[in-house]
Amino acid sequence: MTHLLVEPFQVAFMQRALLAVLVLGVLAGAVGVFVVLRRLAFVGDALTHTVFPGVVVAFLIDQSIFLGALAAGLLSALLLTTLTSNRRVTPDAALAILLTSFFAVGVVLVSRVQSYTADLSAFLFGRILAVSWAELAQTLVVAVIVLATLVALRKELLLRAFDPDGAAAMGYRTGVLDLVLNVLIALVVVAAVRAVGTVLVIALIIVPAATARLLTDRVASMTALSCGLGALGGWLGLAISYDVSIERGVRLASGATVVVVLVAFFLVALAVGPGRRVLARALGGAAAAPSPPGAG
Amino acid sequence: MMEEPATTTAREDAATTEALVIHQAAVAYDGRTPVLEGIDGVVHAGESVALIGPNGAGKSTLLKAVLGLVPLVHGSITVLGRAPLGARRQVAYVPQADTLDQEFPVTAGQVVLMGRYPRVGWVRRPGRADRQVAAAALEEVGLADHGRERFGGLSGGQRQRVLLARAIAQRARLLLLDEPFNGIDALSEELLLAALGRMREAGAAVVVSTHDLALAHLFCDEVCLLNRHQFGFGPLATTLTPDLLRATYGGHALQLRGDSVILAQP
After folding, report:
1. Do A168 and B170 count as a contact with CB atoms less than 8 A apart?
2. Number of domains forming the structure of chain B
3. Looking at the domain assignment, is residue B149 inside a domain?
4. pLDDT digits (tens, 9 = 90+) for A265-296
5. Hey, which residues does B26 pair with through a beta bridge?
6. CB distance A50 to A74 below 8 Å
7. Which residue of B has its CA nearest to A171?
8. Cα distance between the two ends of chain B
9. B154 secondary structure, DSSP code
10. Whole-number Å distance between alpha carbons of B125 and A270
């Protein structure tokens, strides 16, 4: 077991990759709790696409890809909050419009560039093994900002998630709280997109939190579990992909392996956890019936 | 920093007997087309008013207008001598328990503690004093032993009592309850009414929307008859009359033996 879990991390690039997945696992796990409780999985998914034009523009004008993604992520979080606060635009329509328009702008821009294909595949699938110290530092800064905000506003975000009318009646500006949460999701997407890619980043946010929800009925323990599972899944996934790629000569993409491990955790929790009870209730109730993404 | 000032001005003292003053109010979600018009009435401290009317009559809308969440297009609403938005710290809103997500992972005790959040303020955690207030509030509604249970695992009546406990923990002077007696058990109804009665004795004013005329008779001093506009506002004896009820409910009122009315809800 030490062979699998410790040995791969003797080389510097694997150490950086490990640090990155541990930080991202905790970060995405923490934000994921609120994403799951608010049923905002599709918002996270949309934000993974809306950062795309930012990445392309940054590439075109030779600026930091991180800053480009950040700008596009923040802009789409702001537009999303504004659009969904309009009573006549439903949240799912607002999401679909934002997702497709941003992505289309990105595609239009990228089609004008010849040399972009390599970077495009990095954007889609991530390149965790190529994380630099500078990128790691950026991820850490984002993690500190996001986690500090979550700790500071956990009461208010919890109240708004549980009882939006009650929160508004108590005088909280729910629109502002929604904007804060959307920005936090955007920040996590931006921080994680380089490591695991736009296709998989949403798994990092949703799967550990959904797994934790199956195992506990308390928000505090759900948060601890979600962060722990996110970090553990990152470590295990990285170690397994290294082991299989190097020792057995079958190349496994690291980001995708992390996601597969996280989903395995979820399936185990589904099979053995007390959550079977929670799930049975959820499937029995109309509230959790299968619905188009973004309906919640 | 979030506590209300210990001393009040003389002007506010004079206004305290009038917990809620509604003057010729019309409210509209879009700020133009009123969904509720001609609302006029006063609720004093310690009094209780039932909002009566069919589904879709605008009872919930009126409660939201008192909270300042729906704009007025005409007239005025004054809560404890102030505009609704300025008085929200003194007002507690009790939603219908069924409207909240029963799968949400919070305990009954946590829900009650939420009533303390505005006083706790940003960033800080609820302190021991807040926990004591929350525990006492749960005891008020007969759920002292249920604080650690999951909110969604309680019965409908118990959940409604937890939400009243949250309002008690808010220490509000005006309580707004949206259909609190819908589909709850007899014990919960009794305990809710008892707790509300004690709050009124302590000087709180209560506005409750309900379908249940018998409960309105039992608990309220005054009624407000609503269906898109106000059909009557006043003491039970002069307002809960067959004529006014028939006017409010349209075809759904049925008269029995001269003075009793049964309402067939659609």
Report:
1. no
2. 1
3. yes
4. 999 999 887 655 555 555 554 333 333 333 33
5. B74
6. no
7. B88
8. 49
9. S
10. 33
Distances (CA, A) of A288 to A10, A130, B172, B247: 45, 40, 34, 41
Tell whether A153 lies on the interface with B, counting CB pairs under 8 A: yes
Residue B38 belongs to some domain of the structure = yes
Cβ contacts from A onto B, under 8 A:
74
Query: Is the sign of the CA dihedral B175, B178, B179, B183 positive or negative?
Result: negative
A87 in reach of chain B (CB within 8 A): yes
Asked if A162 lies within 8 A of B100 by C-beta distance, the reply is yes
How far is residue B178 from each of residues A133, A257, B52, B163, measured CA to CA in Å? Answer: 56, 50, 11, 11
How many whole angstroms separate alpha carbon A27 and alpha carbon B144?
A: 37
CB contact under 8 A, B107 and A155: no
Q: How far is CA B154 from CA B103, B147, B151, in A?
A: 11, 11, 6
- Contact list in A for residue B100 (CB cut-off 8 A) is 162-163
Strand order in the sheet with B18-27: B72-79, B18-27, B36-44, B229-235, B222-227, B48-52, B205-210, B174-178, B91-94
The DSSP result for A221-252, as a single string, is HHHHHHHHHHHHHHHHHHHHHHIIIIIS----
Note down pLDDT in tens along chain B; length 266 residues. Answer: 444 444 444 444 444 589 999 999 999 988 888 999 999 999 999 999 999 988 888 899 999 999 999 999 999 999 998 998 888 889 999 999 999 999 999 999 999 999 999 999 888 999 999 999 999 999 999 999 999 999 999 999 999 999 999 999 999 999 999 999 888 899 999 999 999 999 999 999 999 998 888 888 888 889 999 988 888 898 888 888 888 888 888 765 555 544 555 555 54
Structure-derived torsion over alpha carbons of residues A252, A255, A261, A263, reported in degrees to the nearest 10 = -120
What does the CA dihedral A173, A176, A181, A182 come to, rounded to 10 degrees?
140
**Cβ-based contacts of B170 with chain A (< 8 Å):** 170
Structural class in CATH, domain A2-288: mainly alpha
Q: Is residue B1 part of a domain?
A: no
B256: CATH: 3.40.50.300
**Which single residue is written with the structure tokens 């195992």?**
A215
- For B234, the domain range is 15-263
pLDDT, one tens digit per residue, over A205-232 is 999 999 999 999 899 999 999 999 999 9
**Residue B69 and residue A168: Cβ atoms within 8 Å?**
yes
Query: B18 burial class (0-12, 13-18, 19+ CB within 10 angstroms)?
Result: middle
Chain B hits for A216, Cβ within 8 Å: 105
Amino acid B121 reads G
SS3 B92: strand
Domain range list for chain A: 2-288
Q: What are the tokens at B249?
A: 């409910």
- B3 belongs to a structural domain: no
